[in-house]
Amino acid sequence: MLYELIGVVRPGRGINEIKDITKTTGNIVLSRGGVIRGITNWGTFLLPKPARKQGAIYNQGHYFILRFDSSAQTQHAVRRTLGLDPRMIRYSVVKMGSKLEEIADVAGKAEWESQRTT
C-alpha cells in the first residue's frame, strides 16, 4: 500500500531535525520490507491554528512529505514512533492506494500547489 506522511516539525531548529526524523521513519519502513518513494521538504509555514505540544505553543511549523510503500503494520509503527517524538508538532498518514493501477503513476516528490482564487 502507498502512504503519504505529512509531518510538521518545530520551526527554527534547522534542517537536521527534519533529516533525523525522516531517517528514523525511513529506517522503520525499510527494516520492515517497505520502500521509500520520496521525501519533499516544503519549508516553514504558518499553522492553520496554534498548536500546543509539551507546554509550548507553536504558530509555525516546518512541513515535510514522505511517500512510502509498506504494510499496514509498518504504517502503524511509523505513527506510534512519530507520536512519541517531542520534535513533531503534528503529522498525518494518508493511504493513497493499494492497487497497482491506483499507485503506479504516483511520483515520489510532492510538489507544492498553491491554489489562488481571483
From TrEMBL:
Example GO biological process: translation
Major location (coarse): mitochondrion
SUPFAM superfamilies cross-referenced by the UniProt entry: Ribosomal protein S6
Entry-linked Gene3D superfamilies: 3.30.70.60
Keywords of the record: Mitochondrion, Ribonucleoprotein, Ribosomal protein
Signal peptide bounds: none
Entry's localization field: Mitochondrion
Pfam families membership: Ribosomal_S6
A GO cellular component annotation in the UniProt record: mitochondrial small ribosomal subunit
Xref: InterPro entries: Ribosomal_bS6, Ribosomal_bS6_sf, Transl_elong_EF1B/ribsomal_bS6
GO function terms (MF aspect): small ribosomal subunit rRNA binding; structural constituent of ribosome
UniProt similarity note: Belongs to the bacterial ribosomal protein bS6 family.
Function: Component of the mitochondrial ribosome (mitoribosome), a dedicated translation machinery responsible for the synthesis of mitochondrial genome-encoded proteins, including at least some of the essential transmembrane subunits of the mitochondrial respiratory chain. The mitoribosomes are attached to the mitochondrial inner membrane and translation products are cotranslationally integrated into the membrane.
Protein name: Small ribosomal subunit protein bS6m
Organism: Friedmanniomyces endolithicus
Taxonomic placement: Eukaryota, Fungi, Dikarya, Ascomycota, Pezizomycotina
